[in-house]
Write a structure and sequence with these properties.
This protein has 218 residues and is an all-alpha fold. The chain contains 8 helices and 2 strands, in the order H-E-E-H-H-H-H-H-H-H.
Amino acid sequence: MNALTPTATSSPQPVRTAARCAIVTLALAGIAWVVRAIWEIRLSVAGMPASGPPAQGNGQHRPLTALEDSYHIVSALGDACVVLCAIAFLMWLFRVRDNAQILSGRPPQLAWPWVYLGWIIPIVNLWMPRGIVADVHHASAPGERLARAVNWWWGLWLVAFWCGAGQAVSGSRDDAIDRAYTGARWLLAGDAATVAAAVAGIFVVRALTDAQQRRINH
């Protein structure tokens, strides 16, 4: 069975290993975004070449400068870190979600496909992932207050996308280079929020894992 599909178990499963993987990849993603921000600062300081942005319009692209070419490499490595982070985080989330169902004796509020779809469907992705995490916490540790890190994590994530950091992943790298030349302030604000969200995400994973592990060991 695929590691990213829900499993049917009769007793809670260990979560420490999945949590460590999620924490390590969150840290890697945060570091990757710091490096990306450094390259964007370098681009902003260097200024746009006289030949204009890489994308010239009408499908035409000029040759990249050495700095622009290195930004493509840095961005590609960063994107790889983000993919690894997403996989590890979802593996951890599915594990704690399955355990929460066993510990609480009730099914999750949302069916398992929403653990994926909640991140990618517009509008829904503004609230659903946080709701899934909160549901896991309430089922795993009834009566305990939701960790503050959850709200910090999600708030910072929304700020990052509002500042346009999401376009650095979903858009072309040449668009990101153009923004570094013309609007670096908002781009860097999004980078800072993304790094902070990754750090807060580490605290989220630790808080939910510890709460669930205490219930399992009780």
